[in-house]
Amino acid sequence: MTHELEVDAIPRTSHPPRRRTIVVWLRILVSVALLALLISRMDLSAIVILNRQRHASTIFWLGAAILTAVGGVLLSAWRWQRVLAIFDEHVPLRILVRHYFAGQFVGNVLPSTIGGDVLRVSRLTTNIGDAPTAFGSVVLERLTGFIALPMICLFGFAINPSLISEPRSWIALLASGLTLLALVFILLLAAHPRLAGRFREDEGWTRFIGAVHIGVERMRRQPKRAMGAIAAAMLYQVSMVAVMWIIGRALEAHVPNGAVLAYFPAVAMAQVLPLSLSGLGVREGMLVLLLTPLGVSTGKAVGIGLLYYLVMLVVSLPGAPSFAIGARRLTTKQGSE
């Protein structure tokens, strides 16, 4: 039986349904326009059609990409569990995995202006009975990615300093710098007692802001738990970079390992911008900008992005049953497992 969230359990968008529909269509149009522009610049006659001898190898690499992406979902659920521990909430990993798959299904399969994060907040609220904590945990879990992605990117430049001389490497460095600046800005607002902190005792929708403040304060006071969440975020983001690397191998796109670590996180940072549908077009455009100076053809760069989306789409499909079934309140015994 599905347990529905109370109407006022989480902050809801004030946009009417018609406006949300317009936003979805605008994102679809942006994706179509960007992909059309990229395809128009591809040398279709130069696209390499893999011969039969390569079919088995391609299937192997794509299978490996799917398995790695599944592992990434498990790591992301584990990261969420580490963040929840900061709030002294103990939710079994199997439940968080189901919620994450359901969120992936909503975010990647169902066109939406909301995405899977609101669904995860809703389902977790049903489990623990505390909407602000559920909201705060998802926000902080996302913020750990603001730390992990720039760190991986900068590590890639550190192990391959020659990348700095590449004509478009500044794009990856700029993405990392802006992400870190955004993280610092958000943390300053969230940690300040007179800004986000003033809402920690509120009863209205502002209590969700207060929950984020409480989470940031607890991370500061519990460095071991905070480092555990950040370490889990690092492993998750590395797994997503690995998915792109594996897809590159499937397409025989020869990207240096240092560039994989330096550029692919920048692509991940760009694709979360709310400009297109599931990052389509933005992700592929970033790959073209960054990889073509390294000798990767436009077709293969676009192919990496599209196959990445396809892999994530396939991995999201198992979330359909979890999305349909819903969530239920945890008992004390379940929560202690």
Provide an overview of this structure.
- With 337 residues, the protein is an all-alpha fold.
- 71% of the residues lie in helices and 0% in strands.
- Helix 5 runs antiparallel to helix 9 and helix 10 runs antiparallel to helix 11.
- The protein is globular, with a radius of gyration of 21 Å.
Helix content: over 70%
Question: Low-confidence runs (pLDDT<50, min 5 residues)?
Answer: 1-14, 48-52
| Structural domains: how many | 1
Global Rg: 21 Å
Structure classification: mainly alpha
Query: What is the mean predicted local confidence, pLDDT?
Result: 84
Distance between the termini: 22 Å
Labels describing this entry:
single chain, 337 residues, 13 helices
Write a brief structural summary.
The chain is mainly alpha-helical and 337 residues long.
Secondary structure blueprint with pairings:
Blueprint lengths: L16 H24 L11 H35 L6 H16 L7 H13 L2 H29 L9 H23 L15 H15 L1 H28 L6 H15 L10 H10 L6 H19 L2 H7 L6 H4 L2
Helix pairs in contact: 1-10, 2-3, 2-5, 2-8, 2-11, 3-4, 3-11, 3-12, 4-5, 5-6, 5-7, 5-8, 5-9, 6-7, 6-9, 7-8, 8-9, 8-11, 9-10, 10-11
